[in-house]
Amino acid sequence: MRLLNTETLQLQQFDQEPFPPYAILSHRWGDQEIPFQELEAGLGKDRDGYQKITTFCAQARDRGFEWAWVDTCGIDKTSSAELSEAINSMYKWYEQSAVCFVYLSDVTAQVQPDGSTYSPDFDNSCWFTRGWTLQELIAPHSVEFYSSDWTHIGDKSSRVDELSRITGVDAGVLHGANPVRACSVARIMSWASKRVTTRKEDIAYCLLGLFGIHMPLLYGEGDRAFIRLQEETLKQSSDQSLFAWNPLVEKPYWDYPDDFRCGIFAPSPACFADSRDIVPLREFWDTESALTNRGVRLRMPFKYTGSMFLGFLCCE
Questions:
Q1: Which helix or strand (DSSP H or E) is residue 38 part of?
Q2: What's the Rg (C-alpha) of the chain?
Q3: How far apart are CA 240 and CA 176, in angstroms?
């Protein structure tokens, strides 16, 4: 892990855990971010991305943190090996942080007569629509929100009900009272159903930590990345809510040809938009599901209707 010294803005590599206490930044990427090479070379100091780094480090330093981590400059993205390791470790890095500062560049803060702050556009921040920020909200124990001028506008604990309403994530999960992996696969997928990423592959990669999965990154594989995520999920879970998705969510049925067929894996998290409340039946928790060289093997009840067989997932 490459941490940023909040005083000198110098990067230092830490190879062994435990890492020193650090603050971590969550934000929506802009057009003027500072990558690793430019920060090392002292370039881009006139750009908004550099100002964001320095202000974040000042905030962290004022809170007593010597070290901080920023995704824009903390990873050498020219190294595919380092990028793969970082993305597979990202959930853990956010989880192990002492505090996560969420910078909402599109949210304003208004001071009320009683001295409190009010942010009327909080709900509509683009931060809530991005794929990567889902784990950045859930994983850290302490999350604090800041407006575009770095005014403190609350934290995860004080805004938990509002955050649950906006994101669909259970309040118990946000509180840390309920572990993420106690939730059904369909429920976790539903949290990402309305989120987007710049690259197609990232809609799968941003969910790795939520499912506790490690897999190699193959940028260029497109939609196949989300299929691989589901295959890896199947290998470690018998939760058949993985298959409880709706292909008509992506587009209406009249846009499909009459002979339309689809596989057992969903093409994107959007297909799980209506699957939030689907959970596996506990009496079938150990029902076998496996990925084989001939496809997916499932054990489930079947019913013959006279013209077709209907399979019943072990869910409700």
A1: helix 36-41
A2: 22
A3: 25
Q: What is the pLDDT of residue 300?
A: 78
pLDDT in tens, 205-261: 999 999 999 999 999 999 999 999 999 999 988 899 999 999 876 666 556 665 556
Q: One-letter amino acid identity for 138? A: I
Q: Which two tokens stand for residue 71?
A: 């995704």
Low-confidence ranges of the chain (pLDDT < 70): 249-261, 283-287
Instruction: Find the length of the chain.
Output: 316
Cis check for the bond before 120: say yes or no (omega within 30 of 0).
no
SS (HEC) of 76-116:
CCCCHHHHHHHHHHHHHHHHHCCEEEEECCCCCCEECCCCC
Dihedral of the alpha carbons of 205, 211, 215, 217, in degrees to the nearest 10: 0
Tokens of 170: 């259970």
Q: How far is Cα 227 from Cα 234, in angstroms, rounded to an integer?
A: 11
Residue pointed to by tokens 């964001």: 52
Helix, coil or strand: residue 120: coil
> What is the DSSP code (8-state) at residue 15?
-
| pTM confidence score | 0.93
